[in-house]
């Protein structure tokens, strides 16, 4: 879009420069090669003008040409220059009634000033037009103000219409730029959230398993090997998730079965169990009826909740309740770990990610320590078609 606008601006400048040059050349031809008497025989004979007046008129011709050539690049300056030249010519033996050049230059400069000038441009154009023509009218002894007003409205009116259209176009371009910037920011946040969910869960489980292997390395080699095998399995799962995310970010469609799903949560619960905890899962309703975006978001929310439980309350019992109704998906994750440790640990990015996911669906979320100990997360994701579609558009895996 920017390149197209640059080309248009260059062509417009070239066109106005060519028009100014052509008008100057035409004026020179009228001045130095008079083919007929001035205004059909009325007025001075151009061929009989002294050299000094010819030089003055030539300078004024240069001013007219520059005003037309710069009417879009320097609109207010061009309008003032055209008006000044028009006024100055009113005090020469050849009034601006001289055919074509002076009036055309003044009208072109006034039109360009109104159409593409700044805030004060319409006022500058109107003053330059009416003042210069008023002085010329007085010097010529003519009082045809109706004609002057008619021509002024015929030129300044369309110029103002062009001005309004340009302003509307500029507003639309600015609005599109704001929307694009907001979309990019939203995209970065969604990708960051997805990466956090993938990496945080995998690394947390791997750290726990590596610590467990180190603790029993000398006393129970078999258990140490099992923990290290779990580290490898989780590592491979994380790599697979990251590759799937990269494929989607590159624009390749992901198969529905490749997306995370609440129907496949065994790897999530296994991580907590390997950390020494226990997970009890209760499912109510048909998980196959959950829309894809809500299914993915529910999986990520459950993943973050179980990751927090494994990280901050190792060895705790975690109860997971998944309920599918006709219009919503409800998740309830509660553990019996130490509440005080949970409040003081972590950065809060996981809970922020959960809230962001829920907001996309217009759902509700509550998370915090329980009075009787442990931590609780409650989430409700309504099945809204528009929100669900929006949740999958940016990356294909976030809700």
Automatic annotation (TrEMBL):
It is an enzyme of class 2 (transferase). It holds the Pfam family HATPase_c. It catalyses: ATP + protein L-histidine = ADP + protein N-phospho-L-histidine. Residues 300-385 form the Histidine kinase domain. Gene3D superfamilies: 1.20.5.1930, Histidine kinase-like ATPase, C-terminal domain. It comes from Micromonospora viridifaciens. The chain crosses the membrane at residues 47-67, 74-92, 145-162. This is histidine kinase. Signal peptide: none annotated. SUPFAM superfamilies: ATPase domain of HSP90 chaperone/DNA topoisomerase II/histidine kinase.
């Amino acid at each position: 879009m920017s390149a197209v606008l640059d080309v248009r601006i260059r062509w417009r400048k070239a066109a106005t420069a060519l028009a100014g040059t052509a008008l100057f050349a035409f004026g020179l031809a009228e001045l130095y090669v008079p083919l007929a008497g001035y205004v059909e025989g009325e007025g001075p004979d151009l061929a009989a003008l002294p050299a000094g007046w010819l030089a003055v008129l030539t300078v004024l011709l240069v001013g007219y040409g520059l005003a037309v050539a710069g009417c879009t690049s320097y609109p207010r300056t061009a309008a003032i220059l055209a008006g000044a030249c028009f006024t100055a010519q009113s005090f020469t033996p050849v009034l601006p009634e001289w055919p074509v050049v002076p009036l055309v230059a003044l009208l072109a400069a006034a039109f360009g000033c109104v159409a593409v000038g700044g805030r004060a441009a319409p006022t500058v154009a109107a003053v330059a037009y009416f003042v210069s023509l008023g002085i010329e009218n007085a010097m010529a002894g003519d009082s045809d103000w109706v004609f002057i007003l008619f021509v002024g409205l015929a030129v300044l009116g369309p110029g103002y219409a062009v001005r309004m259209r340009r302003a509307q176009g500029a507003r639309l371009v600015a609005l599109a730029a704001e929307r694009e910037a907001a979309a990019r920011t939203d995209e970065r946040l969604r990708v960051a959230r997805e990466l956090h969910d993938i990496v945080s869960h995998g690394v947390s489980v791997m750290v726990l398993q590596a610590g467990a292997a180190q603790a029993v390395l000398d006393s129970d080699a078999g258990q140490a090997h099992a923990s290290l095998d779990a580290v490898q399995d989780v590592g491979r799962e994380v790599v697979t998730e990251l590759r799937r995310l990269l494929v989607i970010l590159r624009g390749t469609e992901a198969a529905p079965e490749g997306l995370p799903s609440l129907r496949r949560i065994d790897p999530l619960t296994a991580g907590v169990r390997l950390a020494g905890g226990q997970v009890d899962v209760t499912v109510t309703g048909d998980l196959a009826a959950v829309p894809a975006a809500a299914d993915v978001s529910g999986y990520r929310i459950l993943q973050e909740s179980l990751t927090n439980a494994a990280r901050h309350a190792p060895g705790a019992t975690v109860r997971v309740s998944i309920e599918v109704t006709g219009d919503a998906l409800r998740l309830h994750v509660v553990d019996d770990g130490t509440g005080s440790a949970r409040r003081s640990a972590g950065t809060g990015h996981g809970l922020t990610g959960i809230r962001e996911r829920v907001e996309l669906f217009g759902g509700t979320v509550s998370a915090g320590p329980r009075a009787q100990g442990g931590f609780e997360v409650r989430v409700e994701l309504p099945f809204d078609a528009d929100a669900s579609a929006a949740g999958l558009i940016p990356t294909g895996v976030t809700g």
